[in-house]
Amino acid sequence: QVQLVESGGGLVQAGGSLRLSCAASGIAFDLAAMAWYRQAPGKQRDLVARISSGGTTNYADFVKGRFTISRDNAKNTVYLQIDSLKPEDTGVYYCHAREGSVVKYDHWGQGTQVTVSS
Q: Which of 118, 117, 109, 101 has the alpha carbon at shortest distance from 39?
């Protein structure tokens, strides 16, 4: 059974930092592409950052320079470091895993809430 368990969210003041973690189990983590998505209240779920199995990273334009995605294959964990938080960063942050070569399989975590106060 695949499980993606996020942690690290919370309430933080604008300008602060958070480090989100996503612990994966039930997948070949080192072969999976991992990503973080964000869903603000009343809005669609948007890609924030992703990291390939080889460590290549991509970021949404709205987070470049403030967010850093990384992975630790030894711990089956992907991280999202968020600095200089803004109120508009408020939302539920979801961990996503994609595995498979010909046929792709997508897995989602339950999400962790990030609330940034002004």
A: 109
Residues 46, 39 contacting (CB under 8 angstroms): yes
**Tokens (6 digits) for 13:** 């003041």
Is the pLDDT reported for residue 28 higher than 90? yes
pLDDT bucket at 116, cuts 50 / 70 / 90:
very high
User: Is the Cβ–Cβ distance between 82 and 20 less than 8 Å?
Assistant: yes
Q: What are the two backbone dihedrals, phi and then psi, of residue 28, each rounded to the nearest 5 degrees?
A: -80, 85
Cα-trace Rg, the chain: 14
Q: Give the up-direction half-sphere exposure of residue 34: CA atoms within 13 A in the CB hemisphere.
A: 31
Which residue, 72, 95, 89, 91, is CA-closest to 3?
Answer: 95
H/E run at residue 70: strand 67-72
Q: Look at strands 91-99 and 105-108 and give their pairing.
A: antiparallel
